UniProtKB/TrEMBL annotation:
It comes from the Bacteria. Keywords: Cell wall biogenesis/degradation, Glycosyltransferase, Teichoic acid biosynthesis, Transferase. Belongs to the glycosyltransferase 26 family. TagA/TarA subfamily. Pathway: Cell wall biogenesis; teichoic acid biosynthesis. It catalyses: UDP-N-acetyl-alpha-D-mannosamine + N-acetyl-alpha-D-glucosaminyl-di-trans,octa-cis-undecaprenyl diphosphate = N-acetyl-beta-D-mannosaminyl-(1->4)-N-acetyl-alpha-D-glucosaminyl di-trans,octa-cis-undecaprenyl diphosphate + UDP + H(+). This is N-acetylglucosaminyldiphosphoundecaprenol N-acetyl-beta-D-mannosaminyltransferase. Catalyzes the conversion of GlcNAc-PP-undecaprenol into ManNAc-GlcNAc-PP-undecaprenol, the first committed lipid intermediate in the de novo synthesis of teichoic acid. Its EC number is 2.4.1.187.
Length: 194
C-alpha cells in the first residue's frame, strides 16, 4: 500500500472504502491479526515526545489519518493523503460488518458503568451483534486483562482507554492473540454512553 509520511508517521493513503474493502475485511476473513491506529494530531504530537508510544504506534498495520490537520499537512508537503478517515466512522462500519458476518466483538475500556451503557447502545443499534466480552479500562495488570480478552477469541477488539494507554496496551498485548482486529477508539464509549 501507499504511505504518506507526516511528522515521521507513515499514514496509509487509502480512502475509508479502500481500507475496509481491500484490506480490513479480507484480513478479518483470513483471521489475520490486524492493528489499526487512528491517529489525530494529538496522537502524532505525543509520538514526538514519547518514544515508547511512538514504538507502539509504529507497530500498527494501518495508521489512519483521523484529523483534517494531518490531511492539510500532507497537502502542504506536496504529497496529499486522499481523505480523512475517522476512528469513529471506522468503528461503526466494523460493527455493521460484524453484525452481518457473525463476528464477535470485545469492548475494553472506560469506567464500568460507561462501558455497560456503551455496550447496551451497541446491542440496541446492532441487535445481531455477538459480544465476546467487555471489561472496564481501569486496571493495572495489563497481561492479566489481555489474557482475559484473548480467551474470548474476539474477531474485533475496541479499546477505549485514550492515548497513549490504548495503543501501548494493544502493542504489548498483540503477541497473546492469534487473530483479531485491534483498534484504539479513545472516548467513543463515553459518546455512546451519552
Ligand atoms: N480510560 C480508561 N482507562 C484509563 C484512562 C482512560 O479506560 O486508564 C478511558 C476513559 O474513561 C475514557 C476514554 O479512556 O472513556 C478516553 O479518555 P480520553 O477522553 O482522555 O481520551 P481521548 O479520547 O482524548 O483519546
Amino acid at each position: 500500500i501507499d504511505y504518506v509520511t507526516v511528522m515521521d508517521i507513515p499514514f496509509s493513503n487509502l480512502t475509508q472504502k479502500e481500507l475496509l474493502k481491500e484490506h480490513i475485511y479480507p484480513r478479518i476473513n483470513k483471521e489475520n491479526k490486524t492493528y489499526i491506529v487512528t491517529a489525530n494530531p494529538e496522537i502524532v504530537m505525543q509520538t514526538r515526545i514519547d518514544d515508547v508510544y511512538k514504538n507502539s504506534v509504529k507497530q500498527a498495520d494501518f495508521i489512519i489519518p483521523d484529523g483534517t490537520g494531518i490531511v492539510i499537512a500532507s497537502k502542504i508537503q506536496g504529497n496529499p493523503i486522499k481523505e480523512r478517515v475517522t476512528g469513529f466512522d471506522l468503528m461503526f462500519k466494523l460493527l455493521a460488518y460484524a453484525e452481518k458476518n457473525q463476528l464477535s466483538c470485545y469492548f475494553l475500556g472506560a469506567k464500568q458503568e460507561v462501558n455497560d451503557r456503551a455496550v447496551a447502545k451497541v446491542k440496541a443499534q446492532y441487535p445481531g451483534i455477538k459480544v465476546a466480552g467487555q471489561h472496564h479500562g481501569y486496571f493495572t495488570n495489563d497481561a492479566e486483562v489481555a489474557q482475559k480478552v484473548a480467551v474470548a477469541k474476539p474477531d474485533l477488539i475496541f479499546v477505549a482507554m485514550g492515548f497513549p494507554r490504548q495503543e501501548n496496551f494493544i502493542a504489548a498485548s498483540l503477541p497473546l492473540f492469534n487473530k483479531g482486529v485491534f483498534m484504539g477508539v479513545g472516548g467513543v464509549f463515553d459518546i455512546l454512553a451519552g
